[in-house]
Amino acid sequence: MTEFLQQLLNGISLGAIFALIALGYTMVYGVLRFINFAHADVFMVGSFVGYYAGKLVPEHSIWGGLFVLALAMIACAVLGVVIERLAYRPLRGGPTLNVLITAIGVSLLLENLGQFVFGATPRPFPELFPVTTYDFGGVFISSNQLVVIGVTLLLLFALRFIVMRTKIGTAMRAVSMNKQAASLVGINNDLVISFTFALGSALAAAGGILYALNYPSIDPLMGVLPGLKAFVAAVLGGIGNIPGAALGGMLLGIVETFVNGSEWSTYKDAIAFALLILILLFRPAGLLGRYVKEKV
Amino acid sequence: MRRLAALAFLALTACAFGAPEPIKLGMFASLTGKQAYFGETNSRGASFAVEEINAAGGLLGRKVELLIEDTRSTPGEAATSAKKLLHRDHVVALVSGTASSPALEVAPLCQAAGVPLVAATATNPRVTETGDFIFRACFADPFQGTVLARFAKDRLHARRVAVVIANGSAYSVGLAKYFRERFTADGGEIVAEPKYSEGEKDFRAQLTAIRAAKPDAVFASGDYLESALLCVQARALGLTMPFFGGDTWDATALVELGGKAVEGGYFTAHFSPEARDPAVQSFVARFEKRFGLKPDTGMSLGYDAVMLLADAIKRAGTTDGRAMRDALAATKDFAGVTGRITIDAQRNAAKSAAIFTIRDGKFVYLESVDPR
């Protein structure tokens, strides 16, 4: 029983990180209908900003940790806006495939630029927050894992609030439904799209910091694997759907952890992807996604 | 007219004789990507060896040139790099600056081309089993696995050991196999054998399974990066037994990443900068003067790999592939910086292994174990 609970907890804390990254994918897709493959690399940049900012503040302090988190989120929000402005906006209105390929290009650019600037060797990530381990009768959880789960929940609700309750959120939903009509009623499309990228990239930065806190070794290619998993999670939950991304991330994290702890750990990815295919066979739009009929 | 042509021909050949072509050595190394650590340290050691050879007048009266190709830590890329070096640059011999898996890709190519390959840090036995043109400057995993198994039994008094394996890494899978063979033959028991994919960062699931199996010690057979994270997460899950690993643990980054969690861990090593041998001390001093840092295992093995080749070329008196091969195979008591190297019948370097422990963030030498 202890082992089961421990694995469940391991799975939830891994899933929370997938969920956090998946939120960024799903949001950009919701508004622009394309997968921002550079998202996983913005996640990497976020952790590197955290690495350098972490040198400015004392280790093991809550305020220092929050400062680093905020700084990384702001820096990546700016980066997200710049990427959108330079790489995606000139292609807007063209075929979606072009933007998709550009996104892969931006991703490769960031990865290789990262190796050029930071060097390819992994480096240790500082312990920003105070670290303690809690023992609940044999079930261990570290404070970092709690921080990940807490921050993910907080950001999830904040995002939901922004999209559903604020003016800019309403504008985002309008743009996602119909760009032309939105601009006809006076919505500044460029502004809304820039905001979406800023928000998504800030989430990626938060994910990067929290991931680095839990797995304290960062390198310029660290975004590739979690990025792929988060993308799968977003599709699993129904891409474009915010609670769906969180659910998909959790589910993937828990399944992965249980497979990993068993005899079949070698087939971890195969089982995770088989699950994805199975779910998509029965629910093509994902768990929480709604199937939208294209109007001809 | 004909005389003029003859003169021109003479002038040309004189030019060619005046500045003899350098001897081209090729190196494929993982300079970027996940395993950049091997490539960076091995190639730095190899480049330093070439610098020293050239400063001393080169080989056979010719300068030596080292051409390095990056394998980017990507499967398949090592073969591409080696093909470029072999067929475009026509190098006379190759040095491997990677772990075992990429070296395994290249070994058949070298064997087919009749070009000798010296692996600096590839310890998997299958590398040299590929053919008689493939050599290595380090000891191989069967020996390393045996040393670790004996150490776990005699020094750690461990009877029940869990082995963590990096699936897809020829190094980790091989080392775990030789450890298991010896340890169970000596009456020990492997109580858990969880696997993870190479490059993975979350090991909590595997560690929870290990915790349930209650071993006396844990053998982490993957590389230093994964092992460091493994130890950190193990301590956070309340595991207190000692962890130990193979020669990839011998990286300062292990302590930087692992911190307190790797304290009290053990590993096998090829080289110690604290060795009292004057030749080693002189090497350490020269290296420090040149780069401003102490050479680590990867750098020393990279250095020895090139020096083994240079020694063979000198003795062969030619850069013909077969002659170099024969000279390499006949290497006996070569004074390398990583120890006295004799190339055995399996073309492996037979030399002693050192066991280190981690104390106060420093690697502390414990004992040396001789081959067989």
Overall description:
The complex is a heterodimer of chains A (296) and B (372). Chain A has 296 residues and is mainly α. Chain A has helices at 2-32, 39-53, 62-88, 96-118, 143-165, 167-177, 179-184, 189-214, 224-237, 242-260, 268-282, and strands at 123-124, 133-136, 139-142, 217-218. Chain A has a two-stranded antiparallel ribbon with strand order 1-4. In chain A, helix 5 packs across helix 6. Chain A is globular, with a radius of gyration of 19 Å. With 372 residues, chain B is an alpha/beta fold. Chain B contains 13 helices and 16 strands. In chain B, strands 6, 7, 8, 9, 10, 11, 15 and 16 form an 8-stranded mixed sheet that branches. In chain B, helix 4 (100-113) links the parallel strand 3 (93-97) and strand 4 (117-119). The radius of gyration of chain B is 22 Å and the shape is globular. The model of chain B has no long low-confidence stretch (mean pLDDT 90).
Assign the structural class of chain B, choosing from mainly alpha, mainly beta, alpha/beta, alpha+beta, or little secondary structure.
Answer: alpha/beta
Q: On the 0-100 scale, what is the average pLDDT of chain A?
A: 90
Largest interface, per-chain counts? A-B, 37 and 33 residues
Strand content of chain A: under 5%
How many DSSP E strands of chain B? 16
Oligomer: heterodimer
Instruction: From the alpha carbons, calculate the radius of gyration of chain A and give it in angstroms.
Output: 19 Å
Fraction of residues in helix of chain B: 40-55%
Q: How is the biggest beta sheet of chain A arranged?
A: 2 strands, antiparallel
Helix percentage range of chain A: over 70%
Number of DSSP helical runs of chain B: 13
Report low-confidence residues of chain A grouped into runs of 5 or more: none
